[in-house]
Write a structure and sequence with these properties.
Keywords: Amino-acid transport, ATP-binding, Nucleotide-binding, Transport. Involved in beta-(1-->2)glucan export. Transmembrane domains (TMD) form a pore in the inner membrane and the ATP-binding domain (NBD) is responsible for energy generation. InterPro entries: AAA+_ATPase (IPR003593), ABC_transporter-like_ATP-bd (IPR003439), ABC_transporter-like_CS (IPR017871), BCAA_Transport_ATP-bd_LivF (IPR052156), P-loop_NTPase (IPR027417). The protein contains 10 helices and 10 strands. The protein is α/β, with parallel strands linked by helices. A 6-stranded mixed β-sheet has the order 6-7-8-3-9-10, sandwiched between helices. α3 packs parallel to α6.
């Protein structure tokens, strides 16, 4: 199995705060890796560091054989990395259509791919010419994910996509990510919803205090309540 993304001894400082403390892990190509941990463990900071939003102060980040820890965020995106932040970042004053046009860096929107996206998120078709700022929270999350997948990406970094969403929308997201994976995408996802993590994840990384403290198969962690409680402080069922 080929590793698409590798972090080796990655440290991140934000101001005077030392956030990541020598993070080491690899993400296998074509697989979905879940990044779990207690609040404040460093999960979002890890995604931000990979994406270049925060600069690694030490260590190496390698994407498909290329060092990227010193690259700017736009350059990392051009290498085929899509990012869905926890904040559901969309351009509020632009329409749904305009948000997706901006995300399609390689040319005009692909109608076939749009139809595929609308199959998971029909609300985006319905509000195609509406301002993104007028959408509900769930609809903004759909748009944020659609922006990341409007073109094929080599790697998707996704931060808590199901947080605060209605169960029906969560089901649609799970189906969407499963189909993205079937199409060959590699996903690194932070998620607290156990059902989503269990359904989507192939492997799992658990963080604590800015370090990786566990790595293994998602199915093995899902079936070991004692390990869940030791690593996360409570069973994964309680994260739903």
């Amino acid at each position: 199995m080929t590793d698409l993304l590798t972090l080796a001894g990655v440290h991140t400082h934000v101001g005077r705060y030392h956030i990541l403390h020598g993070v080491d892990f690899s993400v296998a190509e074509g697989k979905t890796t879940m990044l779990l941990g207690r609040n404040g463990a460093g999960k979002t900071s890890t995604l931000r560091t990979i994406m270049g939003l925060w600069q690694a102060s030490a260590g190496q980040i390698t994407l498909d054989g290329q060092r990227i820890e010193a690259c700017a965020t736009p350059d990392i995106a051009q290498l085929g990395v899509g990012y869905v932040p926890e904040s559901m970042a969309v351009f509020s004053d632009l329409t749904v259509k305009e948000n997706l046009i901006l995300a399609a860096r390689d040319g005009p929107l692909d109608d076939t791919r749009l139809e595929w996206i609308f199959g998971f998120f029909p609300a985006l078709r319905r509000f195609w010419l509406s301002r993104a700022g007028a959408l509900s929270g769930g609809q903004k999350q759909m748009l944020s994910i659609a922006r990341a997948i409007v073109e094929p990406r080599k790697l998707l970094l996704i931060d808590e996509p199901t947080k605060g969403l209605a169960p029906a929308i969560v089901v649609a997201l799970i189906e969407c990510f499963a189909e993205i994976k079937r199409r060959g995408a590699t996903i690194l996802m932070v998620e607290q919803n156990f059902h989503a993590a269990r359904e989507i994840g192939d492997s799992v990384l658990v963080m604590d205090n800015g370090q990786i403290v566990h790595r293994g198969e998602m199915s093995a962690l899902a079936n070991d309540v004692a390990l869940q409680e030791r690593l996360l402080g409570l069973s994964l069922e309680a994260h739903q």
